[in-house]
Amino acid sequence: AQKITQTQPGMFVQEKEAVTLDCTYDTSDQSYGLFWYKQPSSGEMIFLIYQGSYDEQNATEGRYSLNFQKARKSANLVISASQLGDSAMYFCAMREGEGDNYGQNFVFGPGTRLSVLP
Amino acid sequence: GAVVSQHPSRVICKSGTSVKIECRSLDFQATTMFWYRQFPKQSLMLMATSNEGSKATYEQGVEKDKFLINHASLTLSTLTVTSAHPEDSSFYICSARDVGGTFPTDTQYFGPGTRLTVL
Question: A11, A68, B17, B48: which is deepest, by most CB within 10 A?
Answer without folding.
Answer: B48
